[in-house]
Amino acid sequence: MTTEKCFFVYILASERNGTLYGDVTSDLVKRIWQHRNDEADGFTKKYGAHALVWFEQHENAESAITREKQIKKWNRMWKIREIEVLNPTWKDLYDDITV
Asked: How does DSSP assign the chain, residue by residue?
């Protein structure tokens, strides 16, 4: 039996229309837990961006990193539009991924 690793691009927010942070990971649950618990000093700890408001799964690291770079180039309104298409209420999706 083989298990293939998945990769995720995600966006965290401090609140609806608040500070946004995007990144890529191979372990979404663990990484979001780290952000939520301020495990590392940095942007999300400083600005309180702890709510997982958007994520996208990729089959390999290369496509996830390419997508992350694309999203980082977007202006703020494009990012907000992308969030609101899939998560119009800006619900924190963390509980949904830990079930």
From this structure: ------EEEEEEESSTTS-EEEEEES-HHHHHHHHHTT-S-SHHHHHT--EEEEEEEESSHHHHHHHHHHHHHS-HHHHHHHHHHH-TT----HHHH--
